[in-house]
Structure formats: structure tokens, C-alpha cells
Design goal:
The chain is of the alpha/beta class and 240 residues long. The protein contains 10 helices and 6 strands, in the order H-H-H-E-H-H-E-H-H-E-H-E-H-E-H-E. The chain starts with a helix and ends in a 5-residue tail after the last strand. It binds zinc ion (ZN) (2 copies).
Length: 240
């Protein structure tokens, strides 16, 4: 069907979903060459536990100061790309506009990120939204991302295990301790029997300070999970 696509491209030249420039030359053609080049993939060296970027030899094992002082309840957290433009715009389009034309770009990013060590999780659990927020938005971006990360494991992606029982303020404007207070008892495990002894991969869109991930991991570990891993598409990298 290459001729068919070629004819379609001639009639309706594909445009970059982010900046609108013609993308006939790029593969996948949802982003232009320039926007692809601005995607910043995260690479080692990173903290073995929380995945934060550190300095040092990329083949060595590193632990950041924060994880040494207070080991988080999750075993490890990884993210594909830096939360910067154009990643910010991609996720914004999905999250607030339900725009699924960004998904081929997201799948391409996942495939090229080199993060494949979460595939052996027993269960994949998207970080839930509060029901009212889910209804207003129409989708949970974490659930959609879980399906992009694990396209062949639909039966392991479970949205009935962890629920958000309390609406919380947006975390963006809050400091570390305010974030923790804001999230305290916001989550609940519904099916304890499913969690017991399982390795669970939590999926979310952005890892900012890790407070949400830690809160979810803690409650899953309290319910008997064997290990919790955290996988996000993007990560906020604080400039030092
Ligand atoms: Zn572009
Ligand atoms: Zn760390």
C-alpha cells in the first residue's frame, strides 16, 4: 500500500503535530526532523533506585544522596525522556485534549528509549485519577501510556487494583512536604489478594519529585506486593 500512502501524502502532505512543518522526510511522520531532534532521551549514569541523572561512569552502579538517606518504597524508577519541550507539549495534547495523534510519536520514543527492564512485572498498574477528574477529562493518560509501554500485555494492565479515593490539589505548585501531605491517604488498594507477592509496575506520565510514585508504592508494599517499579514517559530534571 506504499503507493496509496504516497498518493495521500501528495494530496494531504503530513504535518508535524507539534509545529506544523511538513514532515514528508521523517519517520514516523507525526513529528518533523527538528522536533525529533529536540527529544532528550535519558541515559545512564543514573541512580539505580530512583533513576535520577547523576555524574560518573555510566557502567557503574550509583545511588543518589536522597535514596541513600531515605530509600524510597519502590525498587526502581525509570523514565524515557526529559520533561521539556517538545515532550511537555506531546503529553499536554494527550492529557488535556485527548489527542491520540501523539501516540505514534510516544510509541517511537518508548521503542528508542532502551528501557526494557520492566517487562517482567506481574501486574501493570496505571496511577489512577480521582473519578470526578477522570469523568471531566475523559481519559487517564497513565492508562493510555501503560498500553503504549506494554502493547502485548493488555490483560496484565489493571485499573481495578489501585484507586484514588480523594481528590488532591495539583502537585505542581507544592513543595516537598506539602506534596506528601496533599497525597496522604489519597490512594487505596481495592484487591489486596491480587497484590500479594506480585511485582508491580506503576505507570505514570511524568516523574516530578517522585512523591506520587512513593505514595502509591508504599500502599502497595503495605498490602504485600513483592516489589514496586515505576515507569514514566518523562521526568523533570532539576538543573543544578
Ligand atoms: Zn515539528
Ligand atoms: Zn536516587
Amino acid at each position: 500500500m506504499d503507493w496509496f500512502k504516497a498518493a495521500l501524502d501528495l494530496l494531504f502532505p503530513p504535518r508535524c503535530i507539534l509545529c506544523g512543518v511538513s514532515t514528508v522526510q521523517t519517520i514516523p511522520d507525526c513529528l518533523c526532523r527538528q522536533c525529533w531532534q529536540r527529544i532528550d532521551y535519558l541515559k545512564p549514569p543514573w541512580c539505580t533506585t530512583c533513576g535520577t541523572v547523576v555524574t560518573g561512569n555510566p557502567v557503574h552502579t550509583h545511588y543518589c544522596g536522597a535514596c541513600l538517606r531515605h530509600p524510597p518504597p519502590y525498587r526502581r524508577a525509570r523514565s524515557c525522556i526529559r520533561y521539556d519541550q517538545p515532550a511537555r507539549l506531546l503529553l499536554h495534547r494527550l492529557k488535556y485534549h485527548g489527542d491520540t495523534t501523539v501516540l505514534p510519536a510516544i510509541r517511537h520514543i518508548i521503542a528508542h528509549s532502551g528501557i526494557h527492564d520492566m517487562a517482567t512485572a506481574d501486574l501493570i498498574v496505571p496511577v489512577p485519577l480521582f473519578i470526578k477528574r477522570l469523568k471531566a477529562r475523559g481519559l487517564n493518560q497513565a492508562e493510555i501510556l501503560a498500553h503504549q509501554f506494554f502493547p502485548y500485555r493488555a490483560e496484565s494492565i489493571r485499573t481495578d487494583i489501585l484507586t484514588r479515593v480523594r481528590d488532591t490539589m495539583s502537585q505542581t505548585a507544592l513543595s516537598g512536604s506539602a506534596r506528601r501531605n496533599n497525597l496522604r491517604s489519597a490512594f487505596q488498594v481495592q484487591k489486596r489478594a491480587c497484590v500479594k507477592g506480585r511485582r508491580i509496575c506503576l505507570v505514570d506520565d511524568v516523574f516530578t519529585t517522585g512523591t506520587t510514585a512513593a505514595e502509591c508504592a508504599k500502599i502497595l508494599m503495605d498490602c504485600g506486593a513483592k516489589e514496586v517499579w515505576v515507569l514514566t514517559l518523562a521526568r523533570v530534571i532539576v538543573k543544578r
